[in-house]
Cilia and flagella associated protein 61
Amino acid sequence: MTTITSSTGNTEVVSARRTESHDVSDIIGLFSHLTEAVFGRIDIMYLLEKSNLALTLCNEKSEVIAHAVFLDYPNWNITDQSDWESFLHENYINKECTPLNTLFMHLFVAKEEYAAGCSQEIVSFSVVPNRFLSFTEPDMANVFEKMMSAPGSVVDRNFTLLMCPRHWYHPQLYVRKARLEDYDDLMSIWTRQSETLKETYSEYSLADLIECQDEENQTVVCEDGDTAVGFMSLCSQVNVSLFHECFDLGPFHGLCKPHPEDILKMPQKTSIQEGICILKSYQSLWSLLLWIFLDGAVTVSHTELPLDDVKDFKGSATLLLETEEGSAFYPVYRGASNAFCIRLFFIDEKYETRSLDFLHYVFKLFPDKDFCVILIPHHVPEFHLIQSFVRAVPFCTSKLGYELYVFHSAGLLKSFNVRRATTNDQLGVKMLIKTLSLNESILNDLKIFTLKATPWHLLKYKCSCFITADFQILIFQDIEYIQSHYNIEDFINFNHHQQEEHGHLYHFVLNPIFHHYTKHFLKEILRLAHKSSLYYPIYPQYVEGRFQNPCAHSLTSALHYMVPVRPRRQIVYPLEELGINAPSEQVSKDQMSYSLNHINRKLVLESKASINTRIVVVGASDVGISYLETLIFCPHLKFNNLTLISIHGLPGKDLLGSKHRRFLINSHCFNDEDYAQMSLCSWVNVVVGKMTGINRAAKYVVVSKEKKVPYDYLVLCTGQKYQVLSPTGADISKLPTNREVISKWPQRYTGKVPSNHFTLNDDQDCLKAVHWLKENVVNSEGNIIVYGNTIDIYTTVETLLSLGINGSRIHLVQPPLSSNVTCLNNSEIESAVQEALSKAGVSVYYDSILAQWNEGDDPDLITCAAFTTNTKPFKLQCSAFFSFAYRTVDYETFKAINDACLVFDGRLVIDTKFCTNDVSIRAAGPLTKYSRRYYVDEWTHSNFSSKEIGFELAASMLNIFDPTSKLFSKPPEGTDRLIPMYKGCKIKGGVLPGGYNYLCISKPEIPIHLDLELTLCDRGMEIITGEARLGNYFRMHINKYSMVDSITCFSKEPFPVSNYICLYGQHERLLNDLYYRWNEGQITDLYSYFREPWSMAIYHDRFIDLKKELRQILMSEQVRKMTGECILLFSHTHAQPLHPPRRARCNFPPIVTIQKVPLCRSILDSRGRHL
């Protein structure tokens, strides 16, 4: 915050921030009669949309005091935006303005009395460029100076070019060697530094560092005037061998001098071996600087867009390579160390933006070194200096508790040039990309788009005398699909972007030493190609192996400067019923799903906050995936150290296809399309294996009893899994009953699991079972036993039938129920399922407890199974045994938790903020239970939506990482003992015996038998159409508040599940006056009712926004006044109520008939998000 003084002597405390859309009306209020004369006619929304930098000054009351807009090309259309540099050099004497250091002011408005002070504050806040220019003459003589015209200038005399160099407000600091006399100046800065720095170095260390300088140890200071304002301690001795063990330094040649005996590649070809991650190594990027393709057609197929193995040097763990002998391979560097390190650095906050001034000087102190490195603790936010460094990629198992940042002396360049490419550049490009595995594909594209006349723009980037970049651009053709399938309007307003201004980015490979210029490269692409937005789709690509780094794409070096765009929920349209009202083919067409990343002019100069905290998530459950999804879609945060530990890696690999996935019930939290649109493999490191230990003191997780994965925060989301159930061991020859063996049941089986015993917990287990059945059972004889009483037994039986296995060979054995609530909890549906089982010839047994396999020993193969009942036991021949009878926390997970002394009480104990008894370990999902101090043993996360739980878990931890998060007010006293009640619905769906499609959407609740629920006095109302046995059953329950709180569908025909999920929680009046129409007998089939055109609005992903805005309209003072007048008029005229027959013909509830309210314009929000 800064205090400014008005021309009348008044003062205001102001702060600068990025301009937001809701500031528009206040900015317009600052316009004066001179604004148009100075800047021309301004469409402020359009200008903000196309600006590179827009700043607003606000006072302590959040009132807008001033506003300025900057772009990277001149205003008044005085020259083409791609050619302004040559125009300036030809017409003005100053030759120092380049695209890298210059922005143009397109608008400045302020309260008249504060204009002078505001102009200085805005320019001093805008530290990105070195110069500000303006082809206007605003009243800012205290900030700008006139630039002299060159002889023969052709610029219109009505235009005056003004300039404001950065060093006027942020002068370049003088750097020199430190002296003991600087100690007092430095100590005043030292006292304001972080506690982490003070814990590492004492105040006396500072004097020792200054006094004990030699050739290897140097200390320097920067000074303003005669006062030292910053300090840096350097050392030429770097433990490079330690860095080789912890980080992938291949892109930096191991921080060593090149040597002819260096071993950079694997001597032999790699092979994938059990327990080790094998992928191709980093190839040398030493000759590569930058290569970019830009295209506008997002309809490119996956085969046309090969995503090979170009590895990212940033943001993820790197894979170890293994030779045939099994030892990990590391490159060997024989050369001398080529780096010096920064041991200690601090600077006065006022001068922080000039931190890079140190580097010009310190590289001269070590002329034989090319790299400067610095180690930063994981929890320390990136400060201004290291934002120009490159983060070295740590190995997944690195135990070094620091991040390594690297800077190359070549990164100090002051300018670069971008030009169009020609066929003469092909040889240079070939040399540039020769070490990349994508080189042939890139060269082929280069030849196509330089030899043929196409709408592509091919650009080259040059630094000194080297070709360093290529860009290609094509007019975007499929923007309507992007707009309808992704929330791109969170970042741009489509009304202000022409179709030809959208581009598709293909290749971007950047040498790490120039990584800090990425956003400037992207800014130049947009300017020279006359684009306003770039898009980069990432198609699904799956990597097998023990350790999996974020999936290799050709753009990974720039990916972190783009923002991932959330997909939009799509309506399943009944195209035939809609007819001419159906959406266009561009919107409704099927297309390969992909993750979309985006950048535009506004985002180019907006930095993300880097979070280096090591977050390890154990378990790829719905909760874990939802947690990761929430983190990666935070547009202003960049998580560099996200790791997932999972038995089978990331889900969503489409291993089975829709038919065989029916083994298990579907939670409908995520599907393959969702996983493709998330592209978790681009942001998350994956360790394939099982957690077998937790070392809380050293903060690492043991995976598969061998590898150690360190963490700063550990998130446990393993859930509960079906376990192998141990037989009771009862001797059936003695005719025991359940009463005699129930005390020994259920128990976990500890022996060797028979090869034909299956517990299915995920898609990989299902795939394994399908392959085994096809090889051993489908074409042979023998019984299949399905044991359990969860809903998965029915989906499994239906899948077995669909594989061609005769129903007479399937035996469904159900153990005793633990409560009176069945898995289907609907007697009509249960009767239909039992009828289907009987018709298929499936034998069903009830209240049966597993007594023996074979003859009671631990078999390698189950040939028969014996069961006890309430009367007499029975035995069944068995070729395959599917067990769904025992679901609990996995034993190895329990052992890891218990050995780590985390409180375990049947489940892992947490509080309402997901914390265990270790502040660094969080947990969520069915794995957990609330502490007994809450007195809610019956309520666990199992009662709620897993997707919502994952989101809330991430939201609770974002308060730790997000520097922009607001502090929440202290909750009311006494609420700390209340558990949160989440509102999302629980969903389960699948295909049941008889080919019935089943869906159950219910509110979070403690299960209660449906017949008992219907007897409650406040049960609400249920609407049922069709019959279960006919396959057209649809049940909807409306609670006492007239809200939909459960939906059950049971149909022979497929139905749009995603549409029906949108009905949950809606008021029945919003469903076209559902209750009234039902009572009037107008609804005979809910399936056809919810396919009618009116219902499409309910399914729209922005319908909830419409409801909120309509509520704001209805609650506004203007509408309330109008409503009061209408009621008064109605009472005076004795108007008659609407007759039922007329009301029955209304298409929408009466509340929606309120029209012509001025506030309705807010239904289109300031970003132009069309409903």
In short: Residues 737 and 871 are 6 Å apart (CA to CA). The chain has 35 helices and 55 strands. The radius of gyration is 34 Å. The longest strand covers residues 102-110.
